[in-house]
Design brief:
Elements: H1 7-24, H2 30-43, E1 48-58, E2 61-72, E3 76-81, H3 88-101, E4 105-110, E5 117-122
Parallel strand pairs: 3-4
Antiparallel strand pairs: 1-2, 2-3, 4-5
Helix pairs in contact: 1-2
């Protein structure tokens, strides 16, 4: 466990995601799952930001237009999905967000599949 990035927080978030999946099932929309995550965060008085813009640095300037669903406790990015499966592009998107935000851990959670999918993405830079 010592080598894991934010193991306690990841475990906590996984419990939240499974709880939401158990209550809402796998047929909801992405926004509904994100709303459920926000309700849990508010009720637990967790520190979070929703739909935070991630600014990408670019040759003496910045490029906006990218939004991550949540930043949890200022240390973990969370991207909620409701699709058949997590794609390589979802993974690449999270890597871009992590590199731009300089955070170490991102979690992609997909509620739509036959079972919940939770992927931890580590920023190696």
């Amino acid at each position: 466990m010592a080598d894991l990035v934010y193991p306690k927080e990841s475990y906590y978030l996984t419990g939240i995601f499974y709880s939401i999946q158990n209550q809402l099932g796998s047929t909801g929309k992405e926004k509904q799952y994100a709303d459920a995550i926000e309700i849990v965060f508010k009720n637990s008085k967790d520190d979070y930001e929703r739909e935070k813009e991630i600014i990408l640095p670019f040759i003496g300037g910045e490029i906006g237009g990218n939004r991550v669903d949540f930043i949890f406790r200022k240390i973990i990015l969370i991207d909620a999905k409701a699709k058949s499966y997590i794609t390589r592009e979802d993974y690449r998107q999270m890597i871009r967000y992590l590199e731009a935000s300089k955070l170490k851990l991102g979690i992609i959670v997909n509620f739509r599949g036959s079972k919940i999918q939770i992927k931890r993405v580590i920023n190696l830079k």
